[in-house]
Design brief:
heterodimer; A: 697 residues; mainly alpha; 65% helix; 2% strand; B: mainly beta; 7-stranded mixed sheet; 4-stranded antiparallel sheet; 34 strands; 41% strand
Chain lengths: 697, 529
């Protein structure tokens, strides 16, 4: 008795160690907040709502209850520790049900199997693009366990219980009925006297599987189910998840019929290698060996320590492997997550750990925005790979999935209508997610449209997490519809563009082509990102003068104060983005084409033309990259730039001298020049000016 | 105690618990009597605004929310005949039992419906607000409302569908959605004289292989795709109007361009760069047009046949720009205002008369669109905007009425809200009008109903009742183009989906069905002149 209690305590202790490791890994490495962020932004899972009728959308179709519960549990992921706890609890339940099933099947708890399943599930949670359908899985295992534990012996009653369980599992977890039915059938086959029922079960399982596999064309409702469970997709997550599911029936068959399978294997080997089969036949079987001798307590404890050590090593290996495999994806997701929440220093910290090759358009955008928001864009932008445009492109279809990011950028720039437009697109694409509703409500508040703000706030008030925020804002709106005391709203109003520049942002261009049939004119529109930024730098001033040499169709509209801001505003972000855009303009030098020199200077010319605005922005010192660009400009054109009272810092002057010396010393040997410059000047405008956009630094 | 006795005891206990729960629920739904209520001396704040309205006798229960700070609210509904309906509010929401509501309306047609609202404050005292008095009309509204539900779309759309709602209850079902149509766009469902059969709608490109823009004709339970890009019509049909004879469809072809203002309250703007009218004959399967309704120097759109079928009414404006295909005329689009025009049509001789001006934009200084005749032809309803032909995006769009006897037009101030009111539709009896209104928030349109008498007087409009009284608070889709029909649309979803997805548009004549109306010559419905 005491030994049994001790054994149980040891198993419980090992379980505790195991699940503590799962919890810590899930909390600190996977980070459920990132999972939540990714799954919702990809519309993998519906946003949970407390609104009446929300539940009704789920209880009227098979699989709906599991979907509802999954959406509910996903809310806990807002807090990393709580989310990790919920995930760990689900995995622990899977372990418990696994043990219960295998104990009923073989008489042993098969805890190794349960640990294996748990580790596979943790691996599944590492992928941020897919929702782990653990709730569905749990429903199937719960149904199975209920059947094997509780079904009476009477054939009719037993069949009735089986049908009831199947119906319940189908309703709760739809396609998972196949797993549940398979496990019940394996169990029945392994019991004596239930073969007829088991055969009927096999037929039923095959019929259900066939229905899903081949009936999708006939019943459209099954099509989505079929896509989910049967269509092949060669992705690690897909394979892993299928392995988790298929593992169960395979393991059950092996566990239930290990003797028969063993005999079969021996016969098969006998045909191939008769000697090996003879040797195996001479080994005493487990039954022939008689009862095992009782182990001494210290032997038991030693065995426990060894097993636990192996287990924890295996856990460590799996976690390390998964961490390595998904590390880069995780950092990219972290950057997006922090950027969405305005945690700019965290964005830069995560970006430091991201390999240069992983810099996508969106990562580069987030990093540049983080640099600008922390006041470092003019000093540090070339510390990070710069191979994309500064602004996300309006009309790039590939960016539709990131409309929310576009909206956020436009809001920061003061282009409130563009922000509203993009946020509405995001709402259409991803549904009423809390962040989008919150954003749209804010936009409407800034635009002094309280009734429209209420539309989104009312919808948001049913959100489990953001509902309180929405209710507070509704109260504020009721008290003061203009929100005149709200600093955030006032600040955004002050930044707002004051005139409609749509015609200037999307000017038409006519290209003429001479064909055999005569002249052919093609009208197209291009986006002037320079206008997008330039028009919001000083919104109080009205339409700014155009650059020298540019045509202007814009009326010099008087500034109309719509928000009642206390003093003229200079949008520093817009200014720095504009300057950065000019700095990023790069064209290769072609010695055979004299025009290339002029083309190459175009960005710098525009940069120098806009320098006059820095007084308004309020720089005390010239940002480092601006100094570098001024020096390059002066060197290339021989024309001095009026810096007012400001001066180029001695450090930049020294670097520039060094840069020129390097270029001179390595003339005729570009490879050597690149190597030396990459080692000492990779984070300067000098390097970018020489070698252009890329990630090779 | 034996095992059997334990089972019996457990069963009895369970039954008692269930019975107590049912009793508590039943009592909780009505509440006890209210005594000593203080008079508030003002009406209660409720939404939707169902106070002082005239309602059809066949409308679903008009559930509402009491927006008063209270621990508990109750409503007592009374009418001349029959007992009162007592409703205890749940979280401020008053949900009226459908069967009692039905009996009350049936018994009191032409009578008054009173609603007494009580609120119990946090001090435990009851307050009674001024009685809400509504009129139950003797005129029933058509049983079914068909509308399109969609997001407030800018460029991208996802889920979209045309739905039908039984106005006697809360039953809503999809006529067709784009869930199985690779997100194809569908719009402009059009019926002939409020009959659910036949129906046409317009489908536009989704990501499906064969989803070219086309007109979908549903008739007799079958649906077919019709490509109207023939016989002088280069673009697909947009706005469509049934000839009362049922064998002729007038339609407009439009080159609508959308752009987005970078400042100002409204972001979306649509310009019609080019539009003309044409007619499709179901008897021949041919499209024809006449230069009189497809003039190069003018924009013609929003066709509507007079109830007798002797005139085609439409909206027309001079085209102020020369590029009719690509360039948005940013400097001129606000100067375009549409007049109401008409052209005589002789159904016997298939000939057209001359174009006449019915209501000039020069007089109204506004732009007309969405023409709709009352069934008796006495009144013409239209939308009036400050400019252009896309009233749903113009915030001040109002509904106007023109008396065809006096030729006088006026804004229907009784129903206009100051925000966009448009897409109106008459009931088959001509006693009800439904329209899309953005009055609640300026962003999302909701269907509103108003009673019209024989002189063209309208009553205060009310929103389509919903089972959940807070439905409109959190429903983020917009109700577009509400159309009243006398029965359910019977064509199946699958048939419509197949028609939209098919690569093969029908050519030639469309067979007649019982719903087709009186026969016309199959040689050709009209002659262009």
């Amino acid at each position: 008795m005491a030994g049994q209690i001790e054994r149980r305590a040891l198993v419980a202790f090992r379980d505790g160690l195991f699940f503590a490791a799962v919890f810590i890994y899930t909390w600190l490495e996977i980070d459920p907040r990132l999972l939540h962020h990714c799954l919702l932004s990809q519309w993998v899972c519906p946003t949970f709502s407390l609104a009446p009728g929300f539940l009704g959308r789920f209880i009227n179709h098979p699989g709906g209850p599991a979907e509802y519960l999954t959406a509910l549990l996903l809310q806990s992921y807002y807090l990393a520790a709580l989310g990790a706890g919920v995930i760990t609890l689900q995995i622990a339940l899977v372990c418990l049900l696994t043990r219960a099933y295998f104990k009923a099947l073989t008489g042993a708890a098969e805890s190794v199997l349960s640990y294996l399943i748990a580790m596979a599930l943790v691996a599944v949670y590492n992928d941020y693009d897919h929702l782990a359908p653990t709730v569905y899985f749990l429903a199937a295992l719960a149904g199975t366990t209920l059947y094997v534990k509780a079904a009476p012996r009477n054939l009719l009653l037993r069949t009735a219980v089986l049908l009831l369980v199947m119906a319940a599992v189908w309703y709760v977890a739809s396609g998972m009925i196949v797993l549940c039915a398979s496990l019940c059938v394996v169990y029945d086959i392994s019991r004596k006297g239930r073969r007829a029922q088991a055969i009927a079960g096999v037929v039923a399982v095959a019929a259900v599987a066939a229905l899903y596999a081949f009936g999708a064309g006939r019943w459209p409702g099954l099509a989505a189910e079929r896509r989910e469970w049967f269509d092949f997709e060669w992705a690690l997550w897909w394979v892993l998840w299928r392995c988790v599911v298929l593992f169960f029936p395979v393991a059950a068959v092996v566990a239930a019929f290990r003797e028969q399978i063993g005999r079969g294997v021996r016969k098969f080997l006998g045909l191939l290698w008769p000697r090996l089969a003879e040797a195996m036949a001479q080994r005493p079987s487990r039954h022939d060996a008689g009862p095992k001798p009782q182990k001494k307590p210290w032997e038991r404890r030693f065995e426990w320590v060894v097993k636990t050590a192996f287990l924890m090593m295996a856990v460590g290996a799996v976690f390390l492997g998964a961490s390595h495999k998904y590390g880069q994806q995780r950092r990219a997701v972290q950057i997006d997550y922090f950027a969405t929440r305005g945690q700019w220093r965290n964005v830069l910290a995560a970006a430091e750990a991201l390999p240069e090759g992983e810099y996508t358009y969106l990562v580069a955008h987030d990093v540049n925005m983080a640099l600008a928001r922390t006041g470092r864009l003019g000093d540090d932008m070339f510390k990070y790979p710069q191979k994309f445009p500064m602004l996300l492109e309006y009309k790039n279809v590939a960016l539709w999935a990131h409309m929310y990011k576009l909206a956020d950028t436009f809001l920061a720039l003061g282009r409130i209508n563009d922000a509203e437009h993009c946020a509405h697109e995001a709402l259409v694409m991803f549904g009423p997610q809390p962040e989008i509703l919150q954003f749209l409500a804010f936009i409407k508040m800034v635009k002094s449209q309280p009734d429209q703000a209420r539309v989104f706030l009312n919808a948001l008030s049913y959100d489990l997490v953001h509902g309180g925020w929405a209710s507070d804002r509704l109260r504020e709106l009721a008290d003061d519809p203009s929100l005149s005391s709200d600093a955030g709203v006032q600040e955004a109003r002050a930044r707002m563009l004051r005139w409609d520049d749509v015609a200037e942002v999307f000017p038409y261009r006519v290209s003429v082509t001479e064909t055999a049939g005569g002249r052919q004119e093609t009208v197209s529109t291009v986006t002037s990102y320079e206008t997008v930024l330039r028009d919001v730098i000083r919104p109080e001033e009205g339409a700014p003068q155009t650059q020298p040499g540019e045509p202007s169709t814009k009326p010099a509209a008087p500034a109309t104060r719509t928000g009642g801001s206390p003093k003229p505003v200079v949008n520093r972000l817009a200014f720095e983005y504009l300057m950065a855009m000019h700095l990023l303009y790069w064209a290769p030098m072609d010695p055979r084409n004299p025009a290339s020199a002029l083309l190459r200077m175009e960005g710098l010319e525009r940069f120098i033309n806009n320098i006059r605005l820095w007084d308004a922005v309020g720089y005390r010192e010239i940002p480092r990259h601006y100094e570098e660009a001024i020096l390059v400009y002066e060197d290339e054109t021989g024309v001095g730039v009026d810096l007012g009272k400001r001066q180029i810092s001695p450090g930049t002057m020294a670097r520039f001298e060094k840069y020129k010396e390097m270029v001179y010393r390595h003339r005729g040997n570009p490879a050597a020049a690149f190597q030396e410059m990459a080692a000492s000047m990779a984070d300067t405008f000098f390097f970018y000016w020489t070698y252009g956009p890329g990630v090779y630094k | 105690m034996t095992r059997r006795a334990r089972y019996i005891l457990a069963t009895v206990l369970a039954a008692a618990v269930v019975a107590a729960g049912v009793l508590a629920w039943a009592l909780g739904g009505r509440g006890g009597p209210i005594r000593d209520a203080t008079e508030a001396g003002r009406p209660a704040r409720i939404h939707p605004d169902y106070a002082g309205v005239t309602i059809p006798p066949n409308i679903a229960p008009m559930n509402f929310v009491v927006d008063e700070p209270a621990r508990e609210v109750r409503a007592r509904l009374t009418a001349g005949r029959g007992g009162a309906i007592e409703v205890k509010g749940r979280d401020g929401g008053i949900v009226i039992p459908p069967s009692a509501w039905r009996m009350m309306l049936d018994a009191n047609k032409g009578g008054e419906l009173s609603i007494d609202i009580f609120a119990r404050g946090h001090d435990g005292r009851w307050t009674h607000f001024d009685t809400v008095r509504n009129l139950i009309s003797t005129d029933a509204v058509d049983d079914v409302l068909v509308y399109r539900l969609l997001d407030p779309v800018f460029n991208i759309w996802q889920d979209m569908g045309i739905y039908q709602r039984d106005l006697r209850s809360f039953d809503e079902s999809a006529v067709v959605t784009n869930r199985n149509l690779a997100t194809a766009c569908m719009n402009c469902h059009t019926f002939n004289r409020n009959s659910p059969d036949p129906m046409v709608l317009h489908s536009r490109l989704g990501s499906g292989q064969f989803q070219g823009p086309a007109m979908i004709l549903a008739q007799g339970g079958k649906a077919a795709k019709i490509d109207t890009r023939q016989g002088g019509a280069s673009s697909p049909a947009s706005y469509i109007a049934w000839h009362p004879g049922g064998r002729l469809l007038a339609f407009s072809t439009n080159n609508l361009k959308q752009f987005f203002h970078t400042t100002g309250p409204d972001v979306r703007e649509v310009v019609d760069l080019n539009s003309d009218l044409a007619v499709y004959s179901l008897d021949t399967g041919k499209v024809s047009t006449t230069p009189k309704i497809s003039r190069p120097e003018a924009l013609e759109t929003f066709p509507m046949w007079s109830p007798k079928g002797d005139y085609l009414y439409f909206c027309s404006a001079p085209a102020l720009w020369w590029d009719r295909t690509v360039r948005i005329p940013y400097d001129k689009y606000k100067d375009v205002r549409y007049s109401v025009m008409r052209i005589k049509y002789d159904a016997a001789a298939y000939t057209w008369g001359e174009v006449e001006t019915v209501l000039s934009a020069a007089d109204t200084k506004l732009s007309a669109s969405e023409l709709r005749f009352s069934p008796d032809g006495r009144f013409l309803l239209m939308s009036m905007s400050d400019y252009g032909s896309f009233p749903i995006y113009r915030p001040g769009t109002a509904i106007w009425i023109m008396d065809m006897q006096t030729k006088k037009a006026r804004p229907v101030d009784e129903i206009n809200s100051g925000r966009c009111d448009s897409w109106h539709c008459w009931s088959s009896s001509g006693r009800w009008v439904v329209f899309s209104s953005k009055r609640d928030n300026g962003l999302l349109a909701r269907p509103y109903f108003s009673h019209v008498d024989e002189k063209g007087n309208f009553t205060k409009p009310f929103a389509l009742p919903q089972e959940d009284p807070r439905h409109y608070d959190r429903f983020l889709l917009t109700y577009n183009l509400p159309e009243l029909v006398t029965g359910r649309v019977t064509v199946g979803r699958k048939a419509l989906e197949d028609a939209i997805n098919t690569p093969q548009a029908v050519t030639g004549a469309t067979p007649r069905t019982a719903a087709s109306g009186p026969a016309q010559s199959s040689e050709g419905p009209w002659k262009a002149n």
